[in-house]
Design brief:
The chain has eight helices and no strands. It has about 150 residues and is an all-alpha fold. The chain has a single domain, classed as Orthogonal Bundle (N-utilizing Substance Protein B Homolog, Chain A). The longest helix is centred in the N-terminal third of the chain and has 19 residues, at about 5-25. The termini are far apart.
Amino acid sequence: MPASTPRFYARCAAIQVLYQALVNEQEIAQNELNFVLDENHNEIDQKYFEILVEGIFKEINILDAELDCATDRSITCIDPVEISILRLAVYEFIYCPEVPYRVVLNEAVELAKSLGGEQGYKYVNGVLNKMVFKLRSSEYKAVISHYLRK
């Protein structure tokens, strides 16, 4: 995994938790959260990790409804690592407006390259590029306008 920021490691740890909950088909217990935090305690932004995990589990139905509109298959047919990354990124698009969409997109692609299947990052990138237009359209338009003026 490439060296990165404490938030990148928070995202990575959140993916581990989301993946584990998905494949085990159950909620994550506090001791499992503590294990992930202890394993990554030197690198991780613990507060951001907690915000992500709590928020994603709380809003999972909203996240999945948004993803359902942008994916070419049922959520249940998407690789567990990739759907975990997509849920995290869509959560950040919706609930973390202070994080630029390009950061969310880049971090998700890097996570998919590091944790997902060989070509999974391409799928993640494609889905999230569709989501940007819907969930961060004003920010996207501002960035494009800025580059066009140069």
